[in-house]
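Fig. S4 source data, part A: sequence.
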Amino acid sequence: MLTKPTKKIAWLTGATPFILIFVIPLLFCIPIQEALAQGPTVVSTSPANGATNVPGNQTVISITFSEPMSGGYSITDMTGSWSPMSVFWSAGNTIINLTRPGLGDLAPGTQVTLILNYQGSTSFQDLQGIPLPTYTLSFTILLDSQAPYVVSTSPPNGAINVSRDLPSVSIVFNKPMRGGTTSATNWGSSDIVWSTDRMTVTFVRTDPQRLGAGVTVSITLSPPGYPPYESMDGHALPTFTLSFTTEMGAQLQRIEANPAKGFHWPYYLSVPNSLSQGSVLLVEPNNSGTWSDDPNFHDGKAHDLVLQRSSFAIDLDAPLLVPTFPRPITPQAPEPGGIYTHALDRYSLYLSYLPDNLKRIDLQLIAMINDAREKLAAMGYQTEEKVFLTGFSASGAFVSRFTALHPGIVRAVAQGSPGGWPIAPVGVWNGIPLRYPVGVADVEQLVGVPFDLNTFLTVPKYIYVGNLDTNDALDTRDMPQEDRDLICAMLNCSPLPNISQRWPIAEQMYDSVAANAQFVIYPGVGHNYSPQIWSDLLNFFRLHKPTFLDVLSQHWANDYVMAIYNDGITAGCAAGMYCPGNNVTREQMAAFIVRAKDKANATTCLGTVFDDVTADNPHCANIERLRTLNVTLGCGPNLYCPLGNVTRQEMASFLVRAVDGADATVCAGDVFNDVPLGAPHCANIERLRTLNVTLGCSAGMYCPANNVLRDQMAAFLARAFLGMQ
């Protein structure tokens, strides 16, 4: 047990950011999951965050946390104005004190900015090992004695869990003010409204989008170098920054590596608090932007990414998975450029000298997906078997290539500027061999499984780029030089090419195999997202969510249900639901058969054909149409029994009369063991077997008295009327 740890600190001074890191090792095991959203937070600071009237002789900063901390810390002095400093914990490790030695007063107008756990550091953590989210403390030394200052803000500076629907922000001054320059991040567009006494300014949001989930919003008044806010008596407001963090709106978990399950790296799972049943898991591979052999670096980048994307996932009503794959410096690749795991390059698929934890990260991602779906099921959420994939730049290349390798588990994929080129679903183009990852010529050689074109064609793809994008990572390494030259002649490998000029060529390749792909070029956009892109991505994925949340792709009747839905035979039982396990009633059967046979609902209802089907019955027209077609005579004298359940033997008669126009007449009595000669509906049941509408309920059995369920009915209808097997 360390009671008086020795700290070796390299003190840096000057204008460069000062970073102070000290980590006490934890002598216990961390559980495999941690709910990061419930971790430590900063409760208060002294001086207050955003203060602009701090005296120049201030020597101590105190930061109070919501719970006892482990004793480690990572403090980055962005301006160098509080360095060097000494660190002292108090109050049971709930308060950290940062003392500036007696080096004289700070100059008026000096801005002090300290960041805790900067750039993914996890040194500030509680006793359970849950890290403090990155926190920024900023204040300004009083510029002059008459300078105005901020009295209060709403929400308070440093507030957390602020509503994403916050309509406005207000800042109160100590004296009447004139306007000045304002800058903001993560706030969106707003109108500026002043109180009558000019002592309160309110920023009223006009942006149609909600605030991001778990993001830090910053509003800065009088930013350096721009015209400041001034009091009416002519004194300038020192730079003031109001910052707060919005509610996460989701449970965020870090799932530790589990080699026994097939993945050697942790992953993050964000689950919206209001998640619906039948949702689709959204997967975005991590992209750290550079190489590093430090797993904490990539973990931090992945953590930042999951926080950034959680708001999109919440709006999509989807859980979000982000892996923490490394992009290693070692081992080295045979050619410059490294092993580009974050783009799923050739080397990451087949190099024999890769350590086990770097081999086939595509398969590791599949293992993570399976694990995440298991965890979601344990939380009570059934999810679609196939996933949504999204990515941009290197991660755009990853999802593009992953879809080519594993199309069977992808429901839809959006790939933005995917390494300068989306993988082509062809092996040769105009005589040019297109090896992976330019094309799919040698996929089987690399991974041992041939490219599955038929399944690939069914995956909806949104492939987009900005028309100003010149960030190119077209990868022709490990290919014969002759092939490289031909590819570059076709796609232009010159420095800083206009990536969007390749899109028509890629689109031709996709069209040549009739791929389900939409190519989009955004005007005025470089290598970045735009608000329109975010809106279009949300609409794209919403379009491809399951039609019925209770009949996902893994449901045995999914294809049948979707077939009768697409043919207009059913619209479901409620919004977004099909109710596959419900019994089929006789009034529902009427609607099913009339729509299947006539391709539309009947429109005329007399309300006099059956005594128990009056004109106000929503199925009246279809029930009376069924009588006109001689499909039914009812359940008794002048009765239809609309709410009665349909049995399997009754269903056989309904369908045979609808398909053949009359009852079958021949019954052998030996087709099903439980439908002997002379049994009610025997001829129609055996005719249904001849039509290949049914094989029975089990070996040699038909179960004639069982009620028909809605998922079974979908199969019977699709086989009888749509020719499905």
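Fig. S4 source data, part B ends here. Residues 1-37 have pLDDT under 50 and may be disordered.
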